[in-house]
Write a structure and sequence with these properties.
640 residues, alpha/beta, 8-stranded mixed β-sheet, 7-stranded mixed β-sheet, 33 strands, binds ligand 6R9
Amino acid sequence: MSEFVQPPQSTVTNCTAQDYEAAYARSLSDPDVFWLEHAQRLDWITPPTKGGEWSYDPVEIAWFADGTLNLCHNAVDRHLADKADKTALIFEPNDPDGEVRTLTYAQLHAEVVRMANALKAMGVTRGARVTLYMPMVVEGVVAMLACARIGAVHSVVFGGFSPEALAGRIIDCDSEFVITADEGRRGNKPIPLKVSVDAAVDEHDTRVKGVLVVKHTGADVAMKDGRDHWYADLASDGDCPCEPMNAEDPLFILYTSGSTGKPKGLLHTTGGYGVWTATTFHYVFDHQPDDIFWCSADIGWITGHSYVTYGPLLNGASQVIFEGVPNYPDHGRFWQVVEKHKVSIFYTAPTAIRALMREGDDFVTAHDRSSLRLLGTVGEPINPEAWRWYHRVVGEGRCPVVDTWWQTETGGVMLTTLPGAHAMKPGSAGLPFFGVQPQLVDAEGQMLEGAAEGNLCITSSWPGQARTIYGDHDRFVQTYFSTYKGKYFTSDGCQRDAQGYYRITGRVDDVINVSGHRMGTAEVESALVLHPKVSEAAVVAFPHDIKGQGIYCYVTLNAGLEGSDDLAAELRQQVRKEIGPVATPDRIHFTDDLPKTRSGKIMRRILRKIAENDHGSLGDTSTLADPSLVDRLIEGRVDG
Ligand code: 6R9
């Protein structure tokens, strides 16, 4: 059987294989002309005449620097001419019996103006940083757009972060304003957002002087006189023009949950980010006017910024905003929402796919998915097993799957197949998007040619690239441009096959070296989860007397199953079969769950420490979704 899965013959597509070849070649040979053309996807006040002006040594990056525009105008006002009555947002609440709220572009415009006026009434001015700590509701997207409208810089902090984490992010960018809600809802848990904002602001040395509170659940919350305002009290309908912004004016700051040190506030600017998200959305999701798009990411992450707020709305798309979680009230919730709103393009994370896969097919097949035509994944490597399930069961084998590799730092998709153009290879993200020049290098920075495995760098700039770390350009230079001088280093390991497809093997800090053989942890994990009883696996290194490093595997099983010595032996055999004896796991640790950040990323740092029997220095576990899991893991540690 070929490794490649052919896409279905499609009658409509934004990009054929020939189109891709020609456009990609031109994007490299003539990047300025190419991107100035694509810049025309946006409405400019002053159209740019300059393309990229950048250097990686020293690090200075600008795109379209003589252009002026406003991204809120582009996401909202611009569509009033021909799409005023088109649906922009369909809000699906946490509770399936709750009230669906649909906004046309005209209604979205009215709401954004009300929010922008409320921000002005609170004292927010052009250039001010505004921290958002919101549930996944319409007002979250509206607040981001309202900031963009008046030239304020939004910094969205995921609603699952603790008050401490929120305070750190408020202080780092010296934000004086917070937008929040009384409460959020996720599954059967209320999320006390306003209480957390109070804790962050009252117990830390912030300069916050205004807190705007959206009434969502109606929970009783304390309001501090002079500082806290109900959104409804400050909102007003009067005209609020879009502020003309330079292309290089800041649009937002977004903190990445750093594996080391304090979180980094990546800064994205207006023009380049707008062009990148508009263009990638159009091609990667093959967007057509009648599509109903749904990206399940929270606006607290870059995926929510680029493919909930900006990409879809810049393209005049109709999309679902979902407040809830995949397993409430049951594991069929995603597919029930797909059926209810006739979703045609669905974009989610591999961790969600694996979690739902383990619950069996019935939750999927109970719902009509005939509206779906395209599926996507993002956030971590997807193992071929989960890819195939997503493709075969969720997409009925009809829907192309785009496995999109990118980062907070890249602003939008960088590696993917295009749905109408390319065969797919389960487990491989695929090919570079227009203008992206990937390069694989070895540890010494030597460029590798052809089919190879190495560290993934990008050698030239692209419009959506982060410009700096807010307030710390040196750290930006150090983190991304100093390992390999003159190149952007992604910190991801990567393989390129003979067809030029890129497959991310995981962060390079996760590479295991067993007896001199390098192995991607994702590779071993992928082998483990091929076993029909395994739901998820996370593999880390531990010091090994003979081999240098040994392989320690944390394994979760499908619902209702228990680990045993026999099963451990089967799993070892499975890995030997898939990869080879060199990859044979040394230790298999059955666990009921894996430690994850609230965005669903497995926290390998913690798993490594436990595997190394070094629990004294577990570091910060406050971003864990379930902090009590750590003690259970330490107790269950497998030794010898
Ligand atoms: C968009 C987003 C970035 C890191 C990145 C990589 C991993 C993301 C991936 C993927 C394999 C994919 N990653 N997409 N790995 N295949 N399709 O997730 O941004 O939160 O900054 O994470 O996620 O390791 O370096 P961010």
